[in-house]
Amino acid sequence: MAVGEASFPHMPAIDGVRLGAAMAGIKKPNRRDLVVIEIPEGASVAATFTRNAFCAAPVHVAKAHLTQTPPRYLLINTGNANAGTGSRGIADAERCCSALASLAGVDPQQVLPFSTGVIGETLPVEKIAAGLPQALTQLDGAQWAEAAEGILTTDTRVKGATAQVELSGGTVTLNGISKGSGMIKPNMATMLGFVACDAEIPAATLSQWLRDSVAVSFNAITVDSDTSTNDACTLIATGRGPQVVSAEDERRFRAALTQVLTELAQAIIRDAEGATKFVTLEVEEAASVEEAREVAFTVAHSPLVKTALYASDANWGRILAAVGRAPVEALDVERIVIDLGDVRLVEHGGRAESYTEAAGSRVMAQAEITIRIRLGRGEARATVWTSDLSHDYVSINADYRS
Amino acid sequence: MAVGEASFPHMPAIDGVRLGAAMAGIKKPNRRDLVVIEIPEGASVAATFTRNAFCAAPVHVAKAHLTQTPPRYLLINTGNANAGTGSRGIADAERCCSALASLAGVDPQQVLPFSTGVIGETLPVEKIAAGLPQALTQLDGAQWAEAAEGILTTDTRVKGATAQVELSGGTVTLNGISKGSGMIKPNMATMLGFVACDAEIPAATLSQWLRDSVAVSFNAITVDSDTSTNDACTLIATGRGPQVVSAEDERRFRAALTQVLTELAQAIIRDAEGATKFVTLEVEEAASVEEAREVAFTVAHSPLVKTALYASDANWGRILAAVGRAPVEALDVERIVIDLGDVRLVEHGGRAESYTEAAGSRVMAQAEITIRIRLGRGEARATVWTSDLSHDYVSINADYRS
């Protein structure tokens, strides 16, 4: 199941960026499970990674390689996360990088590895190495959809977003793909996201802009509160297009970047495991952004709120109870206002006088629902997107390995 | 569904404590939904309450009454939580206290009200008042099982625990009952717990001992991470039995109190909504108790761990990922050891060499499972009990109001 439309956008080629996917039979036969992304020489590359302490071997290796030399290739496999695999996992990730490096004629440190799939199983390095020639043969600037398909696991949809933005020096194109459906509560990044553009931006600046945009996009979604061991988001700026020269250029570029990342993040929620609802939580009038996020995530993680959303039951008491248990000091319930879509649910510490069950049910029946919570404590705000908790979520996750 | 044995223990009468239940038709006809507990004059009473900011009207009233005068009656209704009901809810709770007080010949402040059930609906004060004479007629020291039944909501079992402890001045009896099945992540107390004993203990001391015991019993369980608006645990010491005179007396009494509260808390987990597994999380070698609890609750709340438990799938990678995302600074995964029952799952940052899928599956197939996590950071430890996440949990909570 998934919520909303599912079309994959047309993505213009970005000069110098080529993508290729292969069927390497890593976990299942006859599906794209191996992707190579080629980055032109001179590009800037930034990345954010999971904060899970048990971060996967490829995360360790990608972080290390990124500090050594500008990357020329991204190597992504699905079907195996190479996480919880100890020192063996690190060696396996390095071997994959070396295999690609020798085929492509670059240094192993110029390859960043990414893996996603089941945790704790040994990476099938031979299958990956055997699939690389096919992926390299496919390399083409028009293979975004194939690459988007090749990074999926339990996802039911390919996920892509694109934008063009006019800077003073010309048009910049941004293309991005992402994957993710469960174990989604990114912390610095989503499961996997890859974005490229043709702007010319120094790596340090690119890294800061990526972090800022990730904070309000990938780091503002949750399916099930579980942060993956393999989360990573990578941003390439080829430098073959315009520079960002003015404050207005910067504003425009960063807005476009945030837009692309937000579309990719929202696509993950729309395709969340078992999802029947796409839910936007807007928390306003908080004392700090951190506080606003705490309240939003507490509601977004509440199994009772999520099952009520699944049932299309306007059980506003569960929303109220979740807000009330959020880790916020001295919350004054008298000042809290909660709206469900255009319907006032809660004010003055209890149910709004104007509220009717019929009005609440009308909103809850919709596939896309906004819950707006005003705390009456300040000016800060945060938005978080989440899904509901359905029978399909339990089925998918009770059966995943079997 | 529920896990393990379900017998209600024989509870010796506690002199001066009488209980009575009535069918007041608060939400459904023909079920006990109203309970009165009579407390003898001169007794000490202590209570802990939810920390949910949206705490229910009866919690406000009970807290206020408790500061004014020693209580003589506890008045408990199910079918309606009187939460999210604003100032009207406060007035309604007070009216119920007044109704009982005038029938029993005490002051309204000598009645503590407790409510549990659906949030946000107006309390049916007339039904409660009309049921009180029946409850008072039933008052008897042997009505613990009937009272335990009368406080249930979505529970499938009555929950009771009893203990006797020899002090230097004679035998002390402790009896307790509890309710709770969903919206269970108590914070200072469970949904509802009522415990009485015949020891003579000053109220301030009783309050401290209750808090300490609640911390390792009711505050160490979670079904779904949702803290109720109505949690409360009340402890009565009639003073008609022995005093606690020595350090050894104190040690014995507090151990018995913790035992009774732990049995009542565990009974809630065994009867958790949709539960098929009773899971003990033991976190050891933490830098602090708080840190140990954080790790235990992170694992206990993980939907992916909970669905793997439901599936009896030894998907240890999900346990590892949950430990890795716990809010603990500078966790060194190399030092972490995770055992599932008697099977070593994780060591040296990955799967234990000795681990086999067959061994993991053997433990996962059991109804009662212990997950032991050693962090290698210190001497502190904590134990938390939880349940799995099943299709029945979703069904129960997607259908609760319909």
Description:
The structure is a homodimer of 402-residue chains. Chain A folds into 2 domains: 18-270, L-amino peptidase D-ALA esterase/amidase (4-Layer Sandwich), CATH 3.60.70.12; 278-399, ArgJ beta chain, C-terminal domain (Ubiquitin-like (UB roll), Roll). In chain A, a hairpin with a 2-residue loop joins β6 and β7 (170-179). Helices cover 34% and strands 23% of the residues of chain A. Chain A is an alpha+beta fold. The model of chain A has no long low-confidence stretch (mean pLDDT 92). The first copy, chain A, is built from 11 helices and 16 strands. Chains A and B meet through α2, α8, α9, β14 and α11 of A and α2, α8, α9, β14 and α11 of B. Chains A, B: Pathway: Amino-acid biosynthesis; L-arginine biosynthesis; L-ornithine and N-acetyl-L-glutamate from L-glutamate and N(2)-acetyl-L-ornithine (cyclic): step 1/1; Amino-acid biosynthesis; L-arginine biosynthesis; N(2)-acetyl-L-ornithine from L-glutamate: step 1/4. Chains A, B: This is Arginine biosynthesis bifunctional protein ArgJ.
Short description:
2 copies of one chain form a homodimer. With 402 residues, chain A is α+β, with helices and mostly antiparallel strands.
Based on CA inertia axes, which overall geometry of chain A fits? Answer: globular
Counting DSSP E segments of at least 2 residues, the number of strands of chain A comes to: 16
Protein structure class of chain A: alpha+beta
Which topology of the largest domain in chain A does CATH recognise? Answer: L-amino peptidase D-ALA esterase/amidase
- Distance, first to last CA of chain A: 20 Å
The CATH architecture of the largest domain in chain A can be named as 4-Layer Sandwich
Largest interface: A-B, 66 and 66 residues
How many independent structural domains of chain A?
2
Q: What is the H/E order of chain A?
A: EEEHEHEHHEEEHEEHEHHHEEEHEEH
What oligomeric state do these chains adopt?
homodimer
| Percent range for β-strand residues of chain A | 15-25%
Helix content of chain A: 25-40%
Number of helices of chain A: 11
**What is the CATH superfamily classification of the largest domain in chain A?**
L-amino peptidase D-ALA esterase/amidase
Q: What spatial order of strands do you see in the largest sheet of chain A?
A: 9-16-11-15-12-13-14
Report the C-alpha radius of gyration of chain A, rounded.
22 Å
Q: Report low-confidence residues of chain A grouped into runs of 5 or more.
A: none
The CATH C-level class name of the largest domain in chain A: Alpha Beta
Chain-averaged pLDDT of chain A: 92
Note the main sheet of chain A: 7 strands, mixed
